[in-house]
Specification:
Number of strands: 0
Strand content: under 5%
Radius of gyration: 21 Å
Shape: globular
Largest sheet: none
Protein backbone atom coordinates (compact mmCIF):
# COMPACT_ATOMS: atom_id res chain seq x y z
CA UNK A 1 0.00 0.00 0.00
CA UNK A 2 2.81 2.45 0.84
CA UNK A 3 4.39 1.79 -2.56
CA UNK A 4 1.11 2.57 -4.30
CA UNK A 5 0.76 5.81 -2.33
CA UNK A 6 4.31 6.83 -3.13
CA UNK A 7 3.69 6.52 -6.86
CA UNK A 8 0.79 8.85 -7.55
CA UNK A 9 -0.56 9.81 -4.15
CA UNK A 10 -3.28 8.54 -1.86
CA UNK A 11 -6.10 8.79 -4.41
CA UNK A 12 -4.23 6.56 -6.87
CA UNK A 13 -3.70 3.71 -4.40
CA UNK A 14 -6.91 1.85 -5.27
CA UNK A 15 -6.27 2.42 -8.98
CA UNK A 16 -2.80 0.86 -8.75
CA UNK A 17 -4.09 -2.07 -6.75
CA UNK A 18 -6.93 -2.79 -9.18
CA UNK A 19 -4.66 -2.49 -12.23
CA UNK A 20 -1.82 -4.50 -10.67
CA UNK A 21 -4.16 -7.28 -9.54
CA UNK A 22 -5.80 -7.44 -12.97
CA UNK A 23 -2.49 -7.46 -14.84
CA UNK A 24 -1.05 -10.22 -12.65
CA UNK A 25 -4.12 -12.37 -13.31
CA UNK A 26 -4.06 -11.56 -17.02
CA UNK A 27 -0.37 -12.42 -17.35
CA UNK A 28 -0.97 -15.79 -15.72
CA UNK A 29 -3.97 -16.58 -17.88
CA UNK A 30 -2.34 -15.22 -21.04
CA UNK A 31 0.66 -17.47 -20.56
CA UNK A 32 -1.52 -20.58 -20.62
CA UNK A 33 -4.12 -19.40 -23.14
CA UNK A 34 -1.46 -18.22 -25.60
CA UNK A 35 0.18 -21.66 -25.59
CA UNK A 36 -3.17 -23.31 -26.29
CA UNK A 37 -4.03 -20.72 -28.97
CA UNK A 38 -0.68 -21.32 -30.66
CA UNK A 39 -1.32 -25.08 -30.71
CA UNK A 40 -4.80 -24.47 -32.15
CA UNK A 41 -3.30 -22.19 -34.83
CA UNK A 42 -0.74 -24.85 -35.76
CA UNK A 43 -3.47 -27.49 -36.01
CA UNK A 44 -5.72 -25.22 -38.09
CA UNK A 45 -3.02 -24.27 -40.57
CA UNK A 46 -2.59 -20.93 -42.31
CA UNK A 47 -5.78 -20.98 -44.41
CA UNK A 48 -8.19 -22.08 -41.68
CA UNK A 49 -6.53 -19.71 -39.21
CA UNK A 50 -7.36 -16.88 -41.61
CA UNK A 51 -11.01 -18.00 -41.78
CA UNK A 52 -11.36 -18.11 -37.98
CA UNK A 53 -9.71 -14.69 -37.63
CA UNK A 54 -12.12 -13.16 -40.14
CA UNK A 55 -15.20 -14.64 -38.46
CA UNK A 56 -14.18 -13.53 -34.96
CA UNK A 57 -13.22 -10.08 -36.26
CA UNK A 58 -16.67 -9.71 -37.83
CA UNK A 59 -18.36 -10.81 -34.60
CA UNK A 60 -16.33 -8.30 -32.62
CA UNK A 61 -17.18 -5.54 -35.08
CA UNK A 62 -20.86 -6.42 -34.78
CA UNK A 63 -20.73 -6.28 -30.98
CA UNK A 64 -19.19 -2.79 -31.11
CA UNK A 65 -21.94 -1.69 -33.51
CA UNK A 66 -24.77 -2.82 -31.24
CA UNK A 67 -23.35 -1.53 -27.93
CA UNK A 68 -23.58 2.08 -29.20
CA UNK A 69 -20.81 3.35 -26.92
CA UNK A 70 -22.85 2.65 -23.80
CA UNK A 71 -20.07 0.75 -22.03
CA UNK A 72 -17.77 3.74 -21.66
CA UNK A 73 -20.63 6.01 -20.64
CA UNK A 74 -22.04 3.66 -18.01
CA UNK A 75 -18.56 3.03 -16.60
CA UNK A 76 -17.86 6.73 -16.17
CA UNK A 77 -21.19 7.74 -14.64
CA UNK A 78 -21.57 4.74 -12.33
CA UNK A 79 -18.15 5.63 -10.89
CA UNK A 80 -19.18 9.29 -10.61
CA UNK A 81 -22.80 8.77 -9.44
CA UNK A 82 -22.95 5.28 -7.88
CA UNK A 83 -26.41 5.87 -6.34
CA UNK A 84 -27.83 6.02 -9.91
CA UNK A 85 -26.25 2.68 -10.89
CA UNK A 86 -29.55 0.72 -11.26
CA UNK A 87 -30.95 3.31 -13.66
CA UNK A 88 -27.74 3.47 -15.72
CA UNK A 89 -27.66 -0.33 -15.99
CA UNK A 90 -31.33 -0.53 -16.99
CA UNK A 91 -30.89 2.11 -19.71
CA UNK A 92 -27.94 0.22 -21.15
CA UNK A 93 -29.76 -3.11 -21.26
CA UNK A 94 -32.91 -1.63 -22.82
CA UNK A 95 -30.98 0.21 -25.56
CA UNK A 96 -28.82 -2.84 -26.21
CA UNK A 97 -31.88 -5.08 -26.75
CA UNK A 98 -33.37 -2.59 -29.24
CA UNK A 99 -30.01 -2.17 -30.98
CA UNK A 100 -29.65 -5.91 -31.50
CA UNK A 101 -33.00 -6.08 -33.27
CA UNK A 102 -31.92 -3.31 -35.63
CA UNK A 103 -28.33 -4.33 -36.34
CA UNK A 104 -28.38 -8.13 -36.63
CA UNK A 105 -30.28 -8.18 -39.98
CA UNK A 106 -27.89 -5.54 -41.38
CA UNK A 107 -24.84 -7.46 -40.19
CA UNK A 108 -26.14 -10.59 -41.89
CA UNK A 109 -27.02 -8.80 -45.14
CA UNK A 110 -23.67 -7.09 -45.57
CA UNK A 111 -21.53 -9.87 -44.10
CA UNK A 112 -22.84 -12.70 -46.28
CA UNK A 113 -21.83 -10.73 -49.38
CA UNK A 114 -18.14 -11.31 -48.57
CA UNK A 115 -16.63 -14.33 -50.41
CA UNK A 116 -15.18 -15.82 -47.22
CA UNK A 117 -18.65 -15.78 -45.61
CA UNK A 118 -20.38 -17.22 -48.69
CA UNK A 119 -17.88 -20.08 -48.82
CA UNK A 120 -18.35 -20.81 -45.10
CA UNK A 121 -22.04 -20.00 -44.45
CA UNK A 122 -22.49 -22.17 -41.33
CA UNK A 123 -19.45 -20.67 -39.63
CA UNK A 124 -20.66 -17.18 -40.58
CA UNK A 125 -24.09 -17.80 -39.02
CA UNK A 126 -22.42 -19.00 -35.81
CA UNK A 127 -20.21 -15.89 -35.81
CA UNK A 128 -23.33 -13.77 -36.20
CA UNK A 129 -24.97 -15.50 -33.22
CA UNK A 130 -21.84 -14.65 -31.23
CA UNK A 131 -22.55 -10.90 -31.59
CA UNK A 132 -25.17 -10.59 -28.79
CA UNK A 133 -23.04 -12.69 -26.44
CA UNK A 134 -20.05 -10.40 -26.96
CA UNK A 135 -22.18 -7.26 -26.68
CA UNK A 136 -23.81 -8.24 -23.37
CA UNK A 137 -20.53 -9.51 -21.94
CA UNK A 138 -18.76 -6.27 -22.89
CA UNK A 139 -21.40 -4.12 -21.20
CA UNK A 140 -21.21 -6.24 -18.04
CA UNK A 141 -17.44 -5.78 -17.92
CA UNK A 142 -17.78 -1.99 -18.03
CA UNK A 143 -20.51 -2.00 -15.37
CA UNK A 144 -18.31 -3.98 -12.98
CA UNK A 145 -15.35 -1.64 -13.54
CA UNK A 146 -17.60 1.36 -12.89
CA UNK A 147 -18.85 -0.25 -9.68
CA UNK A 148 -15.24 -0.72 -8.55
CA UNK A 149 -15.57 -4.52 -8.56
CA UNK A 150 -12.23 -5.36 -10.12
CA UNK A 151 -12.18 -8.78 -8.44
CA UNK A 152 -15.48 -9.71 -10.09
CA UNK A 153 -14.16 -8.39 -13.42
CA UNK A 154 -11.05 -10.53 -13.04
CA UNK A 155 -13.08 -13.59 -12.10
CA UNK A 156 -15.12 -13.29 -15.31
CA UNK A 157 -11.89 -13.09 -17.29
CA UNK A 158 -10.52 -16.20 -15.58
CA UNK A 159 -13.78 -18.10 -16.18
CA UNK A 160 -13.78 -17.28 -19.88
CA UNK A 161 -10.14 -18.22 -20.37
CA UNK A 162 -10.37 -21.43 -18.34
CA UNK A 163 -13.46 -22.66 -20.19
CA UNK A 164 -11.96 -21.75 -23.55
CA UNK A 165 -8.65 -23.44 -22.74
CA UNK A 166 -10.32 -26.59 -21.41
CA UNK A 167 -12.46 -26.93 -24.53
CA UNK A 168 -9.55 -26.17 -26.88
CA UNK A 169 -7.38 -28.77 -25.15
CA UNK A 170 -10.22 -31.26 -25.70
CA UNK A 171 -10.29 -30.35 -29.39
CA UNK A 172 -6.56 -30.93 -29.65
CA UNK A 173 -6.79 -34.24 -27.80
CA UNK A 174 -9.57 -35.62 -30.02
CA UNK A 175 -8.36 -34.03 -33.27
CA UNK A 176 -11.48 -31.89 -33.77
CA UNK A 177 -9.68 -28.67 -34.68
CA UNK A 178 -11.89 -27.22 -37.41
CA UNK A 179 -12.91 -23.56 -37.92
CA UNK A 180 -16.58 -24.22 -37.02
CA UNK A 181 -15.70 -26.02 -33.79
CA UNK A 182 -13.12 -23.38 -32.76
CA UNK A 183 -15.68 -20.58 -33.16
CA UNK A 184 -18.28 -22.63 -31.24
CA UNK A 185 -15.76 -23.19 -28.45
CA UNK A 186 -15.13 -19.46 -28.11
CA UNK A 187 -18.88 -18.83 -28.07
CA UNK A 188 -19.33 -21.33 -25.23
CA UNK A 189 -16.65 -19.61 -23.14
CA UNK A 190 -18.34 -16.21 -23.62
CA UNK A 191 -21.67 -17.77 -22.61
CA UNK A 192 -20.24 -18.94 -19.27
CA UNK A 193 -18.75 -15.50 -18.68
CA UNK A 194 -22.10 -13.88 -19.41
CA UNK A 195 -24.08 -16.13 -17.07
CA UNK A 196 -21.78 -15.46 -14.12
CA UNK A 197 -21.65 -11.73 -14.93
CA UNK A 198 -25.44 -11.46 -14.80
CA UNK A 199 -25.30 -12.99 -11.32
CA UNK A 200 -22.86 -10.28 -10.21
CA UNK A 201 -25.12 -7.38 -11.23
CA UNK A 202 -28.42 -8.92 -10.08
CA UNK A 203 -28.41 -6.95 -6.78
CA UNK A 204 -28.47 -3.74 -8.82
CA UNK A 205 -31.39 -4.69 -11.05
CA UNK A 206 -33.80 -6.22 -8.54
CA UNK A 207 -35.82 -3.01 -8.24
CA UNK A 208 -36.81 -1.66 -11.66
CA UNK A 209 -36.08 2.08 -11.87
CA UNK A 210 -38.96 4.47 -12.47
CA UNK A 211 -39.58 6.12 -15.81
CA UNK A 212 -38.25 9.39 -14.40
CA UNK A 213 -35.05 7.71 -13.19
CA UNK A 214 -34.55 6.09 -16.60
CA UNK A 215 -34.99 9.39 -18.41
CA UNK A 216 -32.61 11.17 -16.04
CA UNK A 217 -29.99 8.44 -16.51
CA UNK A 218 -30.34 8.64 -20.29
CA UNK A 219 -30.11 12.44 -20.19
CA UNK A 220 -26.86 12.25 -18.22
CA UNK A 221 -25.28 9.64 -20.48
CA UNK A 222 -26.54 10.66 -23.91
CA UNK A 223 -23.66 12.93 -24.98
CA UNK A 224 -20.92 10.54 -23.97
CA UNK A 225 -22.88 7.63 -25.46
CA UNK A 226 -22.72 9.26 -28.89
CA UNK A 227 -19.05 10.28 -28.77
CA UNK A 228 -17.99 6.99 -27.16
CA UNK A 229 -19.96 5.03 -29.75
CA UNK A 230 -18.19 6.88 -32.53
CA UNK A 231 -14.83 6.43 -30.81
CA UNK A 232 -15.24 2.73 -29.97
CA UNK A 233 -16.68 1.90 -33.37
CA UNK A 234 -13.91 3.68 -35.22
CA UNK A 235 -11.19 2.15 -33.02
CA UNK A 236 -12.52 -1.34 -33.67
CA UNK A 237 -13.01 -0.49 -37.33
CA UNK A 238 -9.32 0.41 -37.49
CA UNK A 239 -8.41 -2.79 -35.68
CA UNK A 240 -10.29 -5.17 -37.98
CA UNK A 241 -10.55 -3.26 -41.30
CA UNK A 242 -7.45 -4.87 -42.78
CA UNK A 243 -8.55 -8.35 -41.66
CA UNK A 244 -11.96 -7.87 -43.30
CA UNK A 245 -10.54 -6.36 -46.50
CA UNK A 246 -7.85 -9.05 -46.79
CA UNK A 247 -10.59 -11.67 -46.50
CA UNK A 248 -12.04 -10.15 -49.68
CA UNK A 249 -9.02 -8.88 -51.63
CA UNK A 250 -6.14 -11.17 -50.60
CA UNK A 251 -5.51 -14.89 -50.30
CA UNK A 252 -6.38 -16.73 -47.11
CA UNK A 253 -2.66 -17.51 -46.74
CA UNK A 254 -1.69 -13.83 -46.63
CA UNK A 255 -4.58 -13.21 -44.23
CA UNK A 256 -3.29 -16.06 -42.07
CA UNK A 257 0.21 -14.53 -41.84
CA UNK A 258 -1.14 -11.10 -40.97
CA UNK A 259 -3.65 -12.45 -38.45
CA UNK A 260 -0.99 -14.48 -36.66
CA UNK A 261 1.28 -11.44 -36.23
CA UNK A 262 -1.65 -9.31 -35.14
CA UNK A 263 -2.77 -12.01 -32.71
CA UNK A 264 0.57 -11.72 -30.89
CA UNK A 265 0.40 -7.91 -30.62
CA UNK A 266 -3.28 -8.00 -29.65
CA UNK A 267 -2.49 -10.40 -26.82
CA UNK A 268 0.22 -8.04 -25.56
CA UNK A 269 -2.16 -5.06 -25.86
CA UNK A 270 -4.52 -6.61 -23.32
CA UNK A 271 -2.22 -5.42 -20.52
CA UNK A 272 -2.11 -1.69 -21.43
CA UNK A 273 -5.79 -2.13 -22.32
CA UNK A 274 -6.37 -2.77 -18.62
CA UNK A 275 -4.94 0.67 -17.85
CA UNK A 276 -7.28 2.20 -20.41
CA UNK A 277 -10.27 0.40 -18.88
CA UNK A 278 -9.58 1.72 -15.38
CA UNK A 279 -8.51 5.23 -16.46
CA UNK A 280 -11.95 6.72 -17.08
CA UNK A 281 -13.58 5.76 -13.75
CA UNK A 282 -10.41 6.81 -11.89
CA UNK A 283 -10.41 10.28 -13.44
CA UNK A 284 -14.16 10.58 -12.83
CA UNK A 285 -13.51 10.07 -9.10
CA UNK A 286 -10.82 12.78 -8.91
CA UNK A 287 -12.33 15.86 -7.27
CA UNK A 288 -9.61 18.44 -8.02
CA UNK A 289 -7.95 19.64 -11.22
CA UNK A 290 -4.52 19.08 -9.66
CA UNK A 291 -5.44 15.50 -8.81
CA UNK A 292 -6.69 14.88 -12.35
CA UNK A 293 -3.52 16.34 -13.85
CA UNK A 294 -1.28 14.15 -11.69
CA UNK A 295 -3.37 11.08 -12.49
CA UNK A 296 -3.23 11.70 -16.26
CA UNK A 297 0.54 12.20 -16.34
CA UNK A 298 1.10 9.17 -14.16
CA UNK A 299 -1.14 6.90 -16.24
CA UNK A 300 0.44 8.02 -19.53
CA UNK A 301 3.98 7.38 -18.26
CA UNK A 302 2.96 4.01 -16.84
CA UNK A 303 1.33 3.04 -20.15
CA UNK A 304 4.36 4.05 -22.21
CA UNK A 305 6.75 2.12 -19.96
CA UNK A 306 4.57 -1.00 -20.16
CA UNK A 307 4.25 -0.76 -23.95
CA UNK A 308 8.01 -0.42 -24.43
CA UNK A 309 8.65 -3.51 -22.30
CA UNK A 310 6.14 -5.49 -24.36
CA UNK A 311 7.05 -4.17 -27.82
CA UNK A 312 10.85 -4.22 -27.82
CA UNK A 313 11.23 -8.04 -27.85
CA UNK A 314 8.69 -8.27 -30.71
CA UNK A 315 10.58 -5.59 -32.64
CA UNK A 316 14.09 -7.01 -32.22
CA UNK A 317 13.38 -10.77 -32.27
CA UNK A 318 10.33 -11.32 -34.52
CA UNK A 319 11.77 -14.31 -36.37
CA UNK A 320 12.75 -16.12 -33.19
CA UNK A 321 9.35 -15.50 -31.59
CA UNK A 322 7.46 -16.59 -34.72
CA UNK A 323 9.52 -19.77 -35.11
CA UNK A 324 9.18 -20.73 -31.44
CA UNK A 325 5.44 -20.09 -31.31
CA UNK A 326 4.15 -21.18 -34.70
CA UNK A 327 6.89 -23.07 -36.53
CA UNK A 328 8.43 -22.75 -39.97
CA UNK A 329 5.08 -22.73 -41.77
CA UNK A 330 4.27 -19.29 -40.33
CA UNK A 331 7.74 -17.70 -40.79
CA UNK A 332 6.47 -15.18 -43.43
CA UNK A 333 4.59 -13.60 -40.51
CA UNK A 334 7.87 -12.52 -38.84
CA UNK A 335 8.31 -9.28 -40.87
CA UNK A 336 4.69 -8.41 -40.01
CA UNK A 337 5.39 -8.85 -36.30
CA UNK A 338 8.44 -6.57 -36.57
CA UNK A 339 6.34 -3.80 -38.15
CA UNK A 340 3.25 -4.25 -35.94
CA UNK A 341 5.35 -3.93 -32.78
CA UNK A 342 5.67 -0.17 -33.44
CA UNK A 343 1.97 0.11 -34.20
CA UNK A 344 1.26 -1.70 -30.93
CA UNK A 345 2.88 1.13 -28.95
CA UNK A 346 0.82 3.71 -30.82
CA UNK A 347 -2.41 1.74 -30.41
CA UNK A 348 -1.93 1.35 -26.65
CA UNK A 349 -1.28 5.07 -26.19
CA UNK A 350 -4.36 5.94 -28.25
CA UNK A 351 -6.56 3.73 -26.05
CA UNK A 352 -5.46 5.47 -22.85
CA UNK A 353 -5.62 8.92 -24.49
CA UNK A 354 -9.23 8.25 -25.52
CA UNK A 355 -10.18 7.50 -21.92
CA UNK A 356 -8.50 10.71 -20.75
CA UNK A 357 -10.27 12.79 -23.40
CA UNK A 358 -13.64 11.17 -22.55
CA UNK A 359 -13.21 12.18 -18.90
CA UNK A 360 -13.01 15.88 -19.83
CA UNK A 361 -16.47 16.22 -21.46
CA UNK A 362 -14.70 16.99 -24.76
CA UNK A 363 -16.93 14.89 -27.00
CA UNK A 364 -16.02 16.68 -30.23
CA UNK A 365 -12.30 16.17 -29.56
CA UNK A 366 -12.86 12.47 -28.85
CA UNK A 367 -14.55 12.15 -32.23
CA UNK A 368 -11.84 14.22 -33.93
CA UNK A 369 -9.17 11.91 -32.54
CA UNK A 370 -10.95 8.75 -33.67
CA UNK A 371 -11.90 10.28 -37.00
CA UNK A 372 -8.28 11.05 -37.81
CA UNK A 373 -7.30 7.42 -37.28
CA UNK A 374 -10.20 6.20 -39.43
CA UNK A 375 -9.30 8.59 -42.22
CA UNK A 376 -5.65 7.51 -42.25
CA UNK A 377 -6.22 3.77 -42.24
CA UNK A 378 -9.05 4.00 -44.80
CA UNK A 379 -7.01 6.12 -47.21
CA UNK A 380 -3.96 3.87 -46.88
CA UNK A 381 -6.09 0.75 -47.43
CA UNK A 382 -7.75 2.22 -50.52
CA UNK A 383 -4.37 3.30 -51.88
CA UNK A 384 -2.76 -0.14 -51.55
CA UNK A 385 -5.76 -2.49 -51.78
CA UNK A 386 -4.67 -3.91 -55.15
CA UNK A 387 -1.39 -5.13 -53.62
CA UNK A 388 -2.59 -6.02 -50.12
CA UNK A 389 -0.04 -8.51 -48.82
CA UNK A 390 0.49 -9.29 -45.14
CA UNK A 391 3.53 -6.98 -44.97
CA UNK A 392 1.71 -4.14 -46.73
CA UNK A 393 -1.21 -4.48 -44.32
CA UNK A 394 1.22 -4.31 -41.39
CA UNK A 395 2.71 -1.06 -42.67
CA UNK A 396 -0.76 0.40 -43.17
CA UNK A 397 -1.87 -0.56 -39.66
CA UNK A 398 1.24 0.76 -37.91
CA UNK A 399 1.52 3.95 -39.99
CA UNK A 400 -2.10 4.94 -39.39
CA UNK A 401 -1.85 4.30 -35.65
CA UNK A 402 1.37 6.33 -35.33
CA UNK A 403 -0.38 9.33 -36.90
CA UNK A 404 -3.40 8.70 -34.65
CA UNK A 405 -1.17 8.61 -31.56
CA UNK A 406 0.41 11.97 -32.42
CA UNK A 407 -3.04 13.54 -32.78
CA UNK A 408 -4.36 11.88 -29.61
CA UNK A 409 -1.48 13.05 -27.43
CA UNK A 410 -1.77 16.53 -28.93
CA UNK A 411 -5.44 16.63 -27.92
CA UNK A 412 -4.58 15.45 -24.38
CA UNK A 413 -2.08 18.31 -24.06
CA UNK A 414 -4.63 20.76 -25.45
CA UNK A 415 -7.36 19.72 -23.02
CA UNK A 416 -4.91 19.98 -20.10
CA UNK A 417 -3.82 23.49 -21.10
CA UNK A 418 -7.38 24.67 -21.73
CA UNK A 419 -8.45 23.33 -18.32
CA UNK A 420 -5.58 25.15 -16.60
CA UNK A 421 -6.47 28.39 -18.37
Amino acid sequence: MRLFRFYGGETMASFHQAVARTIVIQIGMLAFSTVVSVLISRALGVDNRGIVSWMLAYSGFGSICVTLGMGQAVKKYIAKLPHHAPAFIAVDLIILAISLLLFLPLLYYYGISAPIARHNPVIFLLALLLVPYLAFAGILNEILIGLGKSLHFNLLYVIEKCVNMALNISLLAFGWVYPLVVVATYMTAIFFRLVVGIGFIRPYIRRPPTRQELWEAFRIMRKLIFSSYFSNLTMYYCSILLTIVMGIMATSKELGYFSIAKFVTDQALMLPGTLASFTLPQLAKEKTLAGQKRAKEHILMLTLAMLLVLALPLFFFPATITRLLFGEAFMPAAPCLHILAIGMIASGMIGVANSIIASQHQERLLMLNSGTLVLCITLFTLLFHNDLTAVTASYIHSGAHIIGMIVALGIVVYTRNSTEN
